Amino acid sequence: MKPKVLHIIDSFESGGTERQAIQLVRLLQETGECEVHLACLQNKGLLRGEADGLGLGEIVEYPLTSFYDANFVKQLNRLRRYLIEHEIDVVHTHCFYTNIFGMTAAALAHTRARITYKGETDFRTPMQKRAERVAFRLSHRVVANSEAVRARLISDGVAAEKIVRHYNGLDVRRVTVNGNENRDEILKGFDLPVSPARKFVTIVANLRHAVKDIPMFLRAAARVHAAVPEAGFIIAGEGELMAELCDMAAQLGIASDVFFVGRCDRIAELLFISDVCALSSTAEGFSNSILEYMAAARPVVATDVGGAREAIVEGETGFIVSSGDDETMAARIIELLRDPQRARVLGEQGSRRVKEIFSTERHLVSTLDLYAELLRNRSTAEGTETDAEIAEGTLHLRRPMNSCASSANPSESSAV
Fold first, then answer.
1. CATH superfamily membership of 4-169+359-397
2. Cβ proximity of 47 and 414 under 8 Å
């Protein structure tokens, strides 16, 4: 009999975490090896259409306003009843909010296999970390998307044997062009200057969180522009930080060479016109943007955060620089812009690496193996929480928290 699996995501916004979750749900559905269900906390975002096209049936929304109000208890009970009535075997959550909500309800329902996800190394407040540890305690496995995240979880007190590392899988079709592209037409489509002399350095990142450190990228851009005047800088993403970033570009004297293109759904075309790609974050788990850059055969210059070193081979597929070191980032970008042949070689080697190590097929197999292992192990009572332990965890979660006080949950995305 097929296991019944419920995936819970925060929303359908087109961020890295959400795209990874929907991609995994699609792959699982296509195998026919699971009966796949999907739920969300916020029924909004462009990916909802893709989810509807998967034929999963009703996608139930569990809107949260807080972790410590009557609505939280109401939504917990709704989800607990759903899990029992639909005889769900596996609950698989994908972000901070769904980890806490989903694991609490799944533990109350005594769901056989409970899986949480951790995709960043240093992003949460101490209070949030304490709350998430409750979710990890109620889960049977914690999926870390890199060795860096796995190490951080262990240092934070999560049992090593509970953690499994599953690298994000990238569908290379997302960044593949058909071979008949006209560069000038693509530039026009993005409202970018059309000139054969122009070289573009691109960063794909949301503009909602300071953790992406776009100011570092802009400081590096100013240095690059001084050395390579024909360089232009594309920032693909949206968020409330855009206005102050535009002001900063003006203050640095590069406003006419920095192009904010907003949220980009034509990622393959964007990377096709890019010469070098960058990541300037101060913290990451495993950046989907890095994989997209490499899959599109573009050399990468990225900060040494999260799993960057697990993706990029220094000097072979790109370069790693220290977080905040805009001088070194600029030097590496200049080096690549001035040596297009080397940039091309690094890009091609990066593309091969993604196909070999970070494929969707590998991610799917790892997930199915994990389900099978847990469902075998859960046939015994080993590791089952008592009602008292679950109640204690639920009471802990209902204490006030700084960042879940409104219905607009901060996004978990690592990229646009």
1. Glycogen Phosphorylase B; (3.40.50.2000)
2. no
